[in-house]
Write a structure and sequence with these properties.
Layout lengths: L1 E6 L4 H11 L4 E4 L9 E5 L3 H6 L5 E4 L5 H4 L8 E3 L6 H17 L2 H9 L16 E4 L3 H12 L4 E5 L9 E4 L4 H6 L3 E4 L13 H5 L5 E5 L8 H10 L2 E6 L19 E3 L9 H16 L15
Parallel strand pairs: 1-2, 1-3, 3-4, 4-5, 6-7, 6-9, 7-8, 9-10, 10-11, 11-12
Helix pairs in contact: 1-10, 4-6
This protein binds NADP nicotinamide-adenine-dinucleotide phosphate and glyoxylic acid.
């Protein structure tokens, strides 16, 4: 069996060593232009030339949860696209969102600024019931985030494409229920996949429907957010602030207005990182199941786009 590795911005030697341990019988190599056909590929944002040459792949394993960069490519319809399910990312995402939420609702930035100025101040506690959290996308990551947020006794709402029922979460689905979901939300968490339906979904119209003083946490993709609309609503005071992990252009350009914005907290697309060993173990399990024609989780539906 031949496994080819084609991942932008990764430590290829470390991945290759670990893949060779997981697949001792396979020939594993970093893809190069003109390579022999492989059976499987492990990829992150590969170039179109990769798919133009590797037309006989049984499956490509994406080493991330989001497949938007893959689905922009022309891929043989016979190649299955497999994404990561959790693989250690869900708990990181829960941690990240709870941190951003609690930092905002407990006013930690205000306390830090006061303490740095040598001021010992008292602030009235803000009732958590006044910060209903709405999660866009109730898949693998959104569901884990909902559970973690509910643990801190915030009201939690979730929005997905298909109807759901989850303990402790008020569930909304479909475009018809989006306005009610938004109107019920003060802290908005975006965990949608990037698809033609969800691109630019965080815009002036939708963000204006959030409760006054709303807070936005975007941990999905930069192209979900219309950046000028966010800046406008922060300036108007309708939005209190935002924590952003993902951007339309990454790395964030040096002159971007987000860099020094007093109401925006930034992180460099690091909310939930790919963990190499857990990821390779998941790929090994799925590849073995595919070889035996067994069903696996995480096969991408190219028509839905995720
Ligand atoms: P997932 O399991 O596929 O969940 C996607 C959720 O979005 C599902 O609940 C789905 O609804 C919902 N959805 C999709 N299209 C929709 C639409 N048009 N309207 C309403 N709901 C829609 O994905 P995941 O594993 O949770 O990952 C989510 C995203 O997180 C990834 O695509 C990626 O972009 C991002 N991510 C970011 C980082 C980071 O470090 N910042 C790390 C990992 C992932 P149904 O349940 O009804 O299908
Ligand atoms: C990271 O952004 C991922 O999609 O896994």
């Amino acid at each position: 069996m031949r496994i080819t590795f084609c991942c932008a911005d990764t430590d290829a030697p470390a991945w290759l060593d670990a893949l060779r341990v997981a697949f001792p019988q396979a020939h594993v190599s970093v893809w190069q232009d003109g390579d022999a056909p492989a059976d499987y590929a492990v990829v992150w944002a590969p170039p179109q030339m990769f798919f133009d040459q590797q037309t006989g792949l049984k499956a490509v394993f994406n080493i991330g949860a989001g497949v938007d960069a893959l689905l922009e490519k022309r891929i043989s319809p016979h190649t299955r696209i497999v994404r990561l399910d959790d693989a250690g990312m869900a708990v990181q995402m829960a941690e990240y969102v709870c941190h951003a939420l609690i930092r905002h609702t407990r006013e930690f930035d205000i306390h830090s600024a006061h303490m740095q100025a040598g001021q010992w101040t008292f602030r009235e506690p803000l009732p958590r019931a006044s910060f209903p959290v709405g999660i866009l996308g109730m898949g693998v990551l959104g569901s884990r985030v909902a559970k973690a947020v509910a643990h801190f006794e915030f009201p939690v709402h979730g929005w997905s494409r298909s109807p759901k029922s989850k303990d402790g979460v008020r569930c909304f689905s479909g475009t018809n229920e989006l306005p009610e979901f938004l109107a019920s939300t003060r802290v908005l968490v975006n965990l949608l996949p990037l698809t033609p339906e969800t691109e630019n979904i965080l815009n002036r119209t939708t963000l204006s429907q959030l409760q006054p003083g709303a807070y936005v946490i975007n941990v999905a993709r930069g192209r979900h957010l219309v950046e000028d609309d966010l800046l406008h609503l922060l300036a108007s005071g309708h939005l209190a602030g935002a924590t952003l992990d993902v951007f339309r252009t990454e790395p964030l350009p040096a002159a971007h207005p987000f860099w020094n914005h007093p109401k925006i907290t930034l992180t460099p697309h690091t909310a939930a990182q790919t963990l190499r060993d857990v990821t390779i173990a998941q790929i090994a399990r799925k590849l073995a199941a595919l070889e035996q024609s067994q069903a696996i989780e995480g096969i991408v539906d190219v028509h839905k786009g995720y």
